Amino acid sequence: MSDVVNLNKFRKTKARADKDKRASENRVKFGRTKAEKQAENTNQALIDKKLKGKKLGDDDQDPT
Model's pTM, two decimal places? Predict the structure, then answer.
């Protein structure tokens, strides 16, 4: 004979596993620390500042 399975317990276990899987995917997708975000923003600001200093001509003129 086969074992008796509690369907509620099975359903909850499956839902928990699905939730854990979704959470791990989101950690990979969105998981950056605040320090990493700030470091990236600082680096991007420095790059923009250097680039702005090397541009030729005025930004006020519209090329179209």
Answer: 0.46
Half-sphere exposure of 19 (CA within 13 A, CB side): 6
Q: Indicate whether 64 pLDDT > 70.
A: no
CA atoms of 57 and 64, how far apart (whole Å): 15
Residue among 19, 14, 57, 37 nearest 5 (CA):
14
Confidence of residue 33 (pLDDT cuts 50, 70, 90): confident
* SS percent in the chain: helix, strand, coil, step 5: 70, 0, 30
Q: And the tokens for 39?
A: 């470091």
